[in-house]
Design goal:
Elements: H1 2-12, E1 23-28, E2 32-38, H2 44-48, H3 53-63, E3 72-78
Parallel strand pairs: 2-3
Antiparallel strand pairs: 1-2
Length: 80
């Protein structure tokens, strides 16, 4: 789990103006490991991008990581 968290931070940190306010919470459900990414309100648009293209690219990278067990990884961008 720490590797996926580090991957998300590595990808997202250069995109935001306030990297010190990046937070990732992991919520484990029966089906998913849900990584909830929260950023500074000024940076939400940078993470989502035009028509969601940046968010889709970040999710593609994160979802390509292999996880042991039956659970799948999900990345949620949380408005704070």
């Amino acid at each position: 789990m720490a590797d996926i968290k580090e991957l998300i931070l590595t990808v997202v940190s250069p995109l935001v103006s306030h990297p010190d306010e990046l937070m990732i919470d992991v919520v484990e459900t029966e089906e998913f490991l849900d990584y909830q990414l929260s950023v500074h309100p000024d940076d939400v648009g940078r993470i989502i991008g035009k028509k969601g293209r940046v968010a889709k690219a970040i999710r593609t990278i994160v979802y390509s990581v292999r996880v042991l067990g039956p659970k799948r990884v999900r990345l949620t961008i949380v408005n704070s």
